[in-house]
Design goal:
- The chain has three helices and six strands, in the order H-H-E-E-H-E-E-E-E.
- By secondary structure, the chain is α+β, with helices and mostly antiparallel strands.
- The chain has a single domain, classed as Nuclear Transport Factor 2, Chain: A.
- It is globular, with a radius of gyration of 13 Å.
Length: 119
Amino acid sequence: MSNDVHAAEPEDVTRLVTERLNAGDATGVAALYEPDAVLAFPIEHPVSGREAIRLIYQEMVDAGVKFGSEAPLPTVRFENLALTSTRSADNTGLRVQVLRRQADGSWMRIIDRPEVPQP
């Protein structure tokens, strides 16, 4: 999968993560995160850095995990930051991400919390 495809809008990142993970491209998924980004997965053991994030996604690829398509909730923007979220496909929680616009106009994740259980 090509890492040359960048997210033109914050909402594009979730779609690209899904496409790349489902294609078995953990490196391509990690490329959608800033170099020092934080991934809170599992939530009690967040990791930071693109390589640590790549390793988590590689474990998912190796385990045969596939992501389904999830409709985005409305994006909240402030200057070069965006808060995106989706309701999980099984409707048991939310996925929440903070993204930052890059110098080239693309968007990358800086904070990712894949599961926020709903009460």
